[in-house]
Amino acid sequence: MFALLIAASSAQAQTGDWQAVKNLKPGSQVIVKAQRGYSCSVEGANDDQLVCEVQEHRSLRTSTLTIPRAEVREVRVLPNQAKDAWIGAGIGAGVGAIVAGSASRASPGANAFFGALGGAGLGALVGAMVPLFQFIFQRGKIIYKR
């Protein structure tokens, strides 16, 4: 599995197409490499610049940052942890219900229900962990590289 992650990261599109940056949805979490590195939430992009919101260090304040396109060397999109947690919860609930319901002879309905609850919790945990491993090993998906 580790080899697959490494292969996938090297097979990612390393493109100079700025259109991919312009197509980012507002709120997308990205890492931008320019004169320095920024982790920010995209507000928008046009032909000349990328505008994103940056969390200020050691504070709850945010500031809007405008990075000229000419300074942007790379943009990586971070995985959506919440979406993956929901997918994991759905898969876990289904598996938990099937396993617990089919293993019970006395009350398969109740066991399927509680199996689904337990499976959903475990699946959500696993689903939320997957993006963390993607972030650690891949540092997000490259959508723009100059």
Report on this model:
The structure is a single chain. Helices cover 46% and strands 25% of the residues. The protein has 146 residues and is of the alpha+beta class. Strand 3 and strand 4 form a beta hairpin. It contains 4 helices and 6 strands. Helix 3 runs antiparallel to helix 4. It has 2 domains: 2-78 and 138-145, SH3 type barrels; 81-134.
Layout of helices and strands:
Elements: H1 2-10, H2 19-22, E1 29-33, E2 37-45, E3 49-55, E4 62-68, E5 74-77, H3 81-103, H4 108-138, E6 141-145
Antiparallel strand pairs: 1-2, 1-5, 2-3, 3-4, 5-6
Name the descriptors.
single chain; 146 residues; alpha+beta; SH3 type barrels; 2 domains; six-stranded antiparallel beta sheet; 6 strands; 25% strand; disordered N terminus
**Main sheet makeup:** 6 strands, antiparallel
Number of domains: 2
Mean pLDDT: 79
Tally of DSSP helical segments: 4
Q: In which order are the strands of the major sheet placed?
A: 4-3-2-1-5-6
Low-pLDDT sequence parts = 1-14
Residue share in helix: 40-55%
Q: Given the C-alpha coordinates, what overall shape results?
A: elongated
